[in-house]
Design a protein that fits this description.
single chain; 247 residues; alpha/beta; Rossmann fold; two-stranded antiparallel ribbon; globular
Length: 247
């Protein structure tokens, strides 16, 4: 019997037999503004608050201080979790853009997979992490540029996380959803056990948020597209409703 890791995101876990499969990696993809980083951080925060599972958040496109400020709006005190050794945020952004950083965890070499994974191993030893997020893979893809090499590097990251006993989310930005394109470089979807796609589409004069579990190996899951909202407390999925909008 495969062990489940509940995300704790209201309405989501009942779409996939109670949650994600323990020690597997999943892709969360979507266009800009669709809610990928919120979904990923909510997975980490719920792990800490609801299940006593420490987490690692690797930020490749946003400075950690911005994350702390942004998520405080949802009532998530990331600094408190860090002080309690329940959360480690890796600053993989500052070095890339040539800025100094006084963060506790810094990825000093831009997009060196070995360096990044060494950092993850060290953090896991320190805080006993069970969940991890890489937000986002898109920045790494642009740095590597070669899709074949990018696929290998992502496979290294996903497999190492699995071996370390981390259930992980890798986010991925896509430009548009035409033709069912669910990843930026066309390879991200192949190295993970499942793919969750977040949509932010226009319906007449409003934009509608919805979610689809595109793939989840080893698990039954909903094949429908479900609406979700971003509330004051984070994402809420309306699991009993469906979206019929044409994409």
């Amino acid at each position: 019997m495969l062990e489940r890791v509940p995300t704790g995101i209201p309405g989501f876990d009942e779409l996939c037999e109670g949650g994600l499969i323990r020690d597997r990696s999943y892709l969360v993809s979507g266009t800009s503004g669709s809610g990928k980083t919120i979904f990923a951080m909510q997975f980490i925060v719920n792990g800490i608050k609801m299940f006593n599972e420490p987490g690692i958040f690797i930020a490749t496109e946003e400075r950690p201080q911005h994350l702390r400020e942004h998520f405080y709006v949802f009532g998530w005190d990331l600094e408190k979790f860090e002080d309690e050794n329940m959360l480690a945020i890796v600053d993989a952004t500052s070095t890339k853009i040539g800025l100094p950083s006084d963060e506790r965890y810094i990825d000093v070499r831009p997009f060196d997979t070995r360096s990044l994974l060494d950092q993850v191993i060290t953090i896991q030893d320190e805080i006993g992490a069970r969940r991890a997020v890489l937000d986002s893979t898109t920045a790494i893809g642009f740095a590597i540029q070669d899709p074949a090499k990018f696929r290998v590097e992502l496979l290294k990251i996903a497999t190492t996380m699995e071996i370390l006993g981390l259930t992980s989310l890798l986010t991925c930005e896509i430009q548009d959803l035409s033709g069912d394109k669910i990843s930026r470089f066309g390879v991200e979807n192949f190295v993970t056990e499942g793919t969750i796609v977040l949509y932010f589409t226009r319906s007449e004069n409003v934009r509608v948020r919805s979610l689809e579990i595109f793939k989840m190996r080893g698990s039954n899951h909903s094949k429908k597209i479900h609406p979700f909202e971003i509330t004051e407390e984070g994402i809420v999925v309306h699991s009993r409703e469906e979206v019929y909008t044409e994409f």
